[in-house]
């Protein structure tokens, strides 16, 4: 069995003590095996689920040629008479959505049509109603010959989606618009991957759950709530194992239980070099770790590997393991930059890179080359649509309020140094992410 550590050493820029972000992303991506189980769900329950198979359209959409607007349908031959710069047509009927006109139409005639109505036989062009003049008795219309092009304002059958073509691809996370599309095809159930199961817990004797009194030196555990929210946003099944004390036996029991019941295990705290950080010791017994530290700020102490529910590697049930930092902001940065994509891949989804845009920094930013930094910032557009960004002040990884105050990450690359006021920087907006 190839170990994660052996595989990781073959990755460019591998450094187990200060792994570049790009190298860490490459390593974890390679071990993101999608869940195999598939289930069929009703359309209303498919929102935010991952499609397990392509959805092939059983019908043409639209199912018939129809009018793209309210107006009058006629034959294009009426535009080519050349006898006048205007077209005069007799109205011979009306077509409404769901109520087609069944008669024939010759080159001197037209049919009143509403948006979505079937195009009458022999008609291939629609002139909008606002471009015509109606006769006093509303029996005929007149319009300029150059007011509309031949074939205009006609939607053809299958123009949106043709029968037998893929409407949605496997790996897509179903969105609200997709539910409407699937309903338009008459599809009431779809095959989706089962939800990924993620177990998480916090470690530390100083942590207290909500409702417990705070002793001297203790703090309320916030990391489980941010982790819960970030996992909930991805529509995953979660298992909250609470707060685990800094005791080897308790930590071992929590890790083994998590591995037995989940696909992925997330912990916060306990992966640094403190005297009471036992995670590293335990994972050497029943785990396989690729790296323990990253060249990233915040989020330097971050472990990635596999653990098993048995007494040694390869025994029992396996799970991917992410040992996140203990500081609240570092937990969120590590989740979005390292963990999120893996969870999506394991869910069977086809994730896209998180989008970044560029903005002008309103102040100088201190930065040392040799690590990637994700600073919190407030971005805004000026009157000309140009983006500007200002850091939120203290960039300490323990200041969780800075995440609530900010609306973006300022992304400072591995090789970048200090940023001068007025210099362009990459930003990653929180909207749609956090």
TrEMBL record:
Enzyme class: transferase
InterPro entries, A to Z: MoaB/Mog-like_dom_sf (IPR036425), MoaB/Mog_dom (IPR001453), MoeA-like (IPR038987), MoeA_C_domain_IV (IPR005111), MoeA_C_domain_IV_sf (IPR036688), MoeA_linker/N (IPR005110), MoeA_linker/N_sf (IPR036135)
GO CC entries: cytosol
Catalytic reactions of this protein: adenylyl-molybdopterin + molybdate = Mo-molybdopterin + AMP + H(+)
GO biological process: Mo-molybdopterin cofactor biosynthetic process
Pathway the protein acts in: Cofactor biosynthesis; molybdopterin biosynthesis
Coiled-coil parts of chain: none
This protein's UniProt keywords: Magnesium, Metal-binding, Molybdenum, Molybdenum cofactor biosynthesis, Transferase
Enzyme Commission no: 2.10.1.1
Molecular function in Gene Ontology: metal ion binding; molybdopterin molybdotransferase activity
Gene3D superfamilies in the cross-refs: MoaB/Mog-like domain, MoeA, C-terminal, domain IV, Molybdopterin biosynthesis moea protein, domain 2, Molybdopterin biosynthesis moea protein, domain 3
Cofactor: Mg(2+)
Annotated MoaB/Mog domain residues: 199-345
Family, per entry: Belongs to the MoeA family.
Function statement: Catalyzes the insertion of molybdate into adenylated molybdopterin with the concomitant release of AMP.
Record protein name field: Molybdopterin molybdenumtransferase
